Amino acid sequence: MKHRIFGKKLGRNHNERKALFNSLTKAIFISGSINTTQARATAIVPTIEKLSNIIITKSDLIARRELFKVLQNQTWVNNVFKVFKETFGTQSSNFTKITKVKRRFGDDALIVKLSFVKPIKFSNKKEVKINPKKLEKKDLKTKKVVKKTKETKQ
User: Which residues have a Cβ under 8 Å from the Cβ of 119 and sit 6 or more positions away?
Assistant: First the structure.
């Protein structure tokens, strides 16, 4: 019996497993879908579901802080938070799906595509406000640079 044993070890120690889960979670929230082995996908699904549920149900500040723990980038947090709220609305569970893709040639492991149920595309572009006064100052400072080239005889 496996009393008080939870989760898969995946052939790694605690720190390696934690890093793997963080990187896989970060990858799915940045790209929208990832290809990985079935064992890794099934191990990471509960983490993604919990984080997705927090984004939808909790207040903005709590959800953004939880996202920042995984993503470690404020622009990604803002974009993921905004797009996720728009896409899933009031849905509170069943955010992910696993689709079988192929068998890996070397060790015959089953490769699956882990993605969100609804098609979602996160953009990591930072919104920049343009100040017209700064543009005018930059135009005055920049001068055309003329390159002098030597002609060679052949």
Answer: 32
Ranges of each domain in the chain: 14-141
Interatomic CA distance for residues 138 and 1, integer angstroms = 71
Q: What is the pLDDT of residues 27-78, one digit of tens each?
A: 998 888 999 999 999 999 999 999 999 999 989 999 999 999 998 889 989 9
Domain over 14-141 is classified CATH 3.40.190.120 = no
Whether the Cβ atoms of residue 71 and residue 30 lie closer than 8 Å to each other: yes
